[in-house]
Amino acid sequence: MHESSLALSILDIVLRQVPGACTGAVRRVDLCLGEYAGVEEHTLASCFEMVALGTPADGAALAVERVAATGRCDRCGEAAVRQGRLLGCPECPGSSVTLLTGRELYVKSIEVTKIPRRHEHAHAL
């Protein structure tokens, strides 16, 4: 199950962007996930929830924006159309298609709770 290693990588990205935050400071992580990325969204969310326990991302929602697959015919350059679960050229049946979008998996944004700063005042004796 590669979703667990992906969840760890996502958490690593989040923790590098939110250093020193207290547990629960990360409210939401927005991902872009291509339809051909080969990632099961529900499993990824469950894995992320588990690996985030006790970290600043503990309890953070994982919001997924799906990216549709698009492509272009290698022979004529025509935009590919959906043919079942695959993409194909409407003009050149059987020709190969270069995938332009649909394999993405990246952190788009991270929403954090503003943590109030504690002001330590020195007291004179």
UniProtKB/TrEMBL annotation:
Gene Ontology molecular function: nickel cation binding; zinc ion binding
Record's function text: Involved in the maturation of [NiFe] hydrogenases. Required for nickel insertion into the metal center of the hydrogenase.
PANTHER family in the record: HYDROGENASE MATURATION FACTOR HYPA
Family annotation (InterPro entries): Hydgase_Ni_incorp_HypA/HybF_CS (IPR020538), HypA/HybF (IPR000688)
Alphabetized Gene3D superfamilies for the sequence: 3.30.2320.80
Keyword check for Zinc: yes
Protein keywords: Metal-binding, Nickel, Zinc
Pfam families per UniProt: HypA
Residue ranges that the Swiss-Prot or TrEMBL entry lists as coiled coil: none
Lineage: Bacteria, Pseudomonadati, Thermodesulfobacteriota, Desulfovibrionia, Desulfovibrionales
Protein's recorded name: Hydrogenase maturation factor HypA
Residues reported in the UniProt entry to bind Ni(2+): 2
Domain of life assignment: Bacteria
Protein family (similarity comment): Belongs to the HypA/HybF family.
BP GO terms, sorted: protein maturation
Name of the gene this protein is made from: hypA_2
Residues the record lists as binding Zn(2+): 73, 76, 89, 92
